[in-house]
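Worked problem 6 (solution included).
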Amino acid sequence: MRAWLLIIGLLSSTLLQAAPGVDAFTVASDGEGGQTYTLTIQILLFMTALTLLPGALMMMTSFARIIIVLAILRQALGTQNTPSNQILIGLALFLTLFIMMPVFTEVNEVALQPYLAEEMNATQALQAASEPVKSFMIAQTREDDLALFARIGDFSELAEPDDVPFSLLLPSFATSELKTGFQIGFLLFIPFLIIDIVVASILMSMGMMMLSPMIISLPFKIMLFVLIDGWALVFGTLAASFQL
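Solution. The predicted structure is:
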């Protein structure tokens, strides 16, 4: 028995020594002054980038502005949790895909397809893909927000939009989207607020102080919103608010 165990151990060690190892990390020159990495490292970097995808979707696209406006609209209607959070997120997601489709199409043409055809490496494809996204973000970013973060971060040499780095553009774009979203939400809130004030005044004049004005005003606000085709107006306004 011991002899068999010894033979098996010798064979196993021989096979392990003979088996070629797989390099965990290798770097090769691409012939153009750049570097390429092994497929294992590329897959690792890709899986790491996927974890940042939700944050990029929210803060580098039109998603933030849309979800803010829809949330304020629901609050103005006074419908509590109708539509639900899942429905609002779904609406914001599909409207974001509609608005961002020209950008995604350009990214596919200038970066993804050449990379799949092996006409450029991963670094070049990433650089090419960032240009359409950067152009979209700069078009939506306010100059005062960009100047604010440029002053905080001590970015002095910014002669052209192409000189703006992503580290400066990301917080500036996010701040601009928050401002724009709240401005649109404020304009949507005013008509429903007027209805609430009118209903509350009528109830007070009738001495019905124990009756909540929200119960009476809710049907009128829903009726007004339906009669003016509110959803189409809101979605159309949101889509038109982006400078494509």
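Discussion: Strands lie at 27-29, 35-37.
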